[in-house]
Amino acid sequence: MEKQQYEILMNILNGAKDTDYGRRYSFDNIKTIDAFQNVLPITDYDNYASFFELMTRLGEREIITALPLVCYTLTSGTMGAPRIIPCTTAHLQYYIDEFRKIRTKGSIFALVQSFPKGKAFEDGAYLNSIFGAVLTACRKKIKDNSHARIFVANSLTSPTELIFPTELFDQCHARILFALLDKNVEQIFSPFTWEMLETFEYLEKNWKMLVRDIEKGAIDDSVTLSDEIRAKLNTKLRGNPKRAAELRTIFEQGFDQPIAPKVWPNLTRVTVSGTGDYRIYTEKLDPYIGDIPMNFGYYAYPEALLAKSIGDCSEEYIMLPETGFYEFLPINSQIEEQIRPLTMNNLETEKMYEVLVTNNAGLYRYRLGDVIKVKRYEDEVPVISYEYRLNETSSLAEDKIIEYI
User: Three-class SS string for the chain?
Assistant: First the structure.
């Protein structure tokens, strides 16, 4: 693993040696991890804000990366306004490879979407979310599945009008509607448990309207939608009195017992990030899903795909060392010149660290602001748990923007 991390770092630096940032810090002269840590400063978003301004507003290129940008991804601003993070094909590929692994034989109720393709920035890149960028890259392989079409395995319950919308709108009602129509759902996928919780709470409150929509094949007029979006979605609906009656019988029995396995009898897994700060929402989600195995999916941000769950019903993640070069700053230490962050192979178990990432999209020694705990090593790779955001208190209101990540 130490050799792999070294090779990843050298490949990143070699690819960016002719950028403005690479020339400033003489990337071509850096041959060791020690030299890298001696020369490059630890950074945060403020170190890059002016670069992003030059790139997006003036069209400047090859400032921090020589690779063409796929898009800018939007991330939550828990310390202020939302931020944009550059994304290259090399960086995005890790997310694409892992996204394909969550597919199942049946369909997936996925609470994700791409951003509408608006005006490009001056450097030609568009604003999207990390999941939106992945969906766009996989678009040719994503089958449009609605109950109006013959069911196709490995498809999403949402039609393309929801996955790739032409405008931003509250998708909660429409997402649930199409998912309810599909009895073959085997997996529910969402970036965070709070969004899945909101979805089930909406279902509990509005099931009568949803059932009526399924019965008549049209979205209720009280749901706020533009005329264009409403018309497009209604063309994908057909009245299904049989499914409506089936669902009405289920919902009339109440929500005292887990509702998800009743609605989708083939449901075998819920994949959602819900550890650390998000445990409060995870616990509230349990009454809706019951004994359906919950997998905490991926520990990921637009800046880095750090780790993946070791398995269902576990809060532990195993690091993905191939996705970037990682450093770890011991917690309770101050960032001073004499303190050198540790590399992945030198961590102590049961100790907590702040994560720094160097990636293929132009971020170098970037502070994610997350604290992780090292639980153990498996085949030289750290198994970790996410603990909390450093010196921050995330709130549901602040993190709502993550719906689009």
Answer: CHHHHHHHHHHHHHHCCCCHHHHHCCHHHCCCHHHHHHHCCCECHHHCHHHHHHHHHHCCCCCCCCCCEEEEEEECCCCCCCEEEEEEHHHHHHHHHHHHHHCCCCEEEECCCCCCCCCCCCCCCEEECHHHHHHHHCHHHCCECCCCCCCCCCCECCCHHHHCCCCCCCCHHHHHHHHHHCCCEEEEEEEEHHHHHHHHHHHHHHHHHHHHHHHHCCCCCCCCCCHHHHHHHHHCCCCCHHHHHHHHHHHHCCCCCCCHHHHCCCCCEEEEECCHHHHHHHHHHHHHHCCCCEECCEEEECCEEEEEECCCCCCCEEECHHHCEEEEEECCCCCCCCCCCEEHHHCCCCCEEEEEEECCCCCCCEEEEEEEEEEEEECCEEEEEEEEECCCCCCHHHHHHHHHC
